[in-house]
């Protein structure tokens, strides 16, 4: 078998090929293209290239449906040869939209996913961030801001939950984990494509906050207001969540209109950040969700 042999694209079911990408076959994990893709596990390479890795056919199709640019689709050659129809259609769709397609050996997929039994499809997408200045919320709408979130699983779970309740955006304030890391994207289960994400240094966020006409509801262990008390229906709401270890910094807490607390029983000091965000998001969206 030829490694990285260029072949003309397959035709889609209807025979059409528009702006076609190229199909390559790669068997060796040592191939330079595979090395470049593997390097996307590191934030530095994601920042340099603007690309990130998405695992699984469902997530790849979610990204395409949401209109994100798929640069490369890596598919298991064995699954293609087995005639998996949905995979064959995905390849045709990727080629038609101008993406390159790599038909890969199991070893190549394992190397990219850094695990045994990897998914049969891996997408390399161009990342999208929303400029904070473009973020506007209408009355009744909700977004979430996160002060220095550090855990990729927490961030992914929060984006997934924000998507589930129809939140409009997530703002990552200060030194946050990368929303396009492999672990975060895995935890979003596709919601990375659904929830606009903005990033801001503290000063940028504070400047934006001055012009925000909605209510900023901070969550704090020392909050004196019950989390169900604010009227979430009348104005736009920004829920502000704190760092896993330190909570909201004093400066960020000072930027909130109100500091709320979720009551707890038992011995736990606090809730996990993603769990607390879930509780807050469902409360803030309760009226709109008909709960
Ligand atoms: N030691 C930290 C503190 O005292 O703030 C605990 C941080 S907690 C693990 C992470 C974040 O989850 C908090 O900053 C807050 O945003 C939210 N959180 C967790 N439990 C909460 C509760 N009972 N009420 C309000 N917010 C809570």
TrEMBL record:
<dbReference type="InterPro" id="IPR013123">
    <property type="entry name" value="SpoU_subst-bd"/>
</dbReference>
<dbReference type="Pfam" id="PF00588">
    <property type="entry name" value="SpoU_methylase"/>
</dbReference>
<dbReference type="InterPro" id="IPR051259">
    <property type="entry name" value="rRNA_Methyltransferase"/>
</dbReference>
<comment type="similarity">
    <text>Belongs to the class IV-like SAM-binding methyltransferase superfamily. RNA methyltransferase TrmH family.</text>
</comment>
<dbReference type="InterPro" id="IPR029026">
    <property type="entry name" value="tRNA_m1G_MTases_N"/>
</dbReference>
<keyword id="KW-0808">Transferase</keyword>
<dbReference type="Pfam" id="PF22435">
    <property type="entry name" value="MRM3-like_sub_bind"/>
</dbReference>
<protein>
    <submittedName>
        <fullName>RNA methyltransferase</fullName>
    </submittedName>
</protein>
<dbReference type="GO" id="GO:0008168">
    <property type="term" value="F:methyltransferase activity"/>
</dbReference>
<dbReference type="InterPro" id="IPR053888">
    <property type="entry name" value="MRM3-like_sub_bind"/>
</dbReference>
<dbReference type="InterPro" id="IPR029028">
    <property type="entry name" value="Alpha/beta_knot_MTases"/>
</dbReference>
<dbReference type="InterPro" id="IPR029064">
    <property type="entry name" value="Ribosomal_eL30-like_sf"/>
</dbReference>
<keyword id="KW-0489">Methyltransferase</keyword>
<dbReference type="GO" id="GO:0032259">
    <property type="term" value="P:methylation"/>
</dbReference>
<dbReference type="InterPro" id="IPR001537">
    <property type="entry name" value="SpoU_MeTrfase"/>
</dbReference>
<feature type="domain" description="RNA 2-O ribose methyltransferase substrate binding">
    <location>
        <begin position="53"/>
        <end position="131"/>
    </location>
</feature>
